[in-house]
Design a protein that fits this description.
By secondary structure, the protein is α+β, with helices and mostly antiparallel strands. It folds into two domains: 139 residues, Fructose-1,6-Bisphosphatase, Chain A, domain 1 (2-Layer Sandwich), CATH 3.30.540.10; 107 residues, 3-Layer(aba) Sandwich (D-Maltodextrin-Binding Protein, domain 2), CATH 3.40.190. It is 29% helix and 26% strand. It is globular and about 50 Å long.
Length: 258
Amino acid sequence: MTVAERDLALLTEAARAAGEVAMRYWKNAPKAWDKADSSPVTEADLACNDLIMGILRRARPDYGWLSEETPDDTTRLRTEHQFIVDPIDGTRAFIAGEKHFSHSLAVAHNGKITAAVVYLPALDKLYTATEFGPALRDGQPITCSRKSLADQPNILTSKTALDPQNWPNGVPQFQRSFRASLAYRLCLVADGSFDGMITFMDAWEWDIAAGSLIAARAGAKVTDRDGLALDFNAPAAQSAGTFACAPLLHDDLISLLQ
């Protein structure tokens, strides 16, 4: 078993354990408040974070740690491997009692994601991948769609992405859909449910780390909004947007931005 495969098994264990914790709070009026950046957080986010961190760091004490719900410690920049975690991605959906929230867990090595898990406990749906293995949903291989912009693709994105100022060569025509969890959006591209997902806004690494590998291993093309490869464990822990699409569709959209 490779290092990435061992890491994947550990991530899966932690994600499923977090799912049990999250489901005890879901639809049970968890305490919630806004953080300094106005994003919501709940007692469930913190409980899941503590559980995941305990499982992962006990097993890999030499790995760095980056999580939405833990103050950033720059010592991660000097480690060879890092855990990148969003304890609950889609907190607004979680608070609203919707099913499309997820636990997003990944390992990075030299700036690249090597193992990834996205688990949706309310749906009991598990997406996984390693750097050289297939993308899987509940243990079965998945592949992205093969559509281009001419094929009337269905793209997961927010309404703000259709602002003409984002598209200097004209706003492309496509069907628009949305899911609260950015990690889940990437997985829905991976399994072919949607043809792409795009966000122009800077994306936190914990939102996209796991899903980006799963989408890429399913055959999708995944870059930032400039068409450049994603790089992880950066000091700012953000990417310049995220485009993850069927390969032809990705190239069509990026060409409209140049």
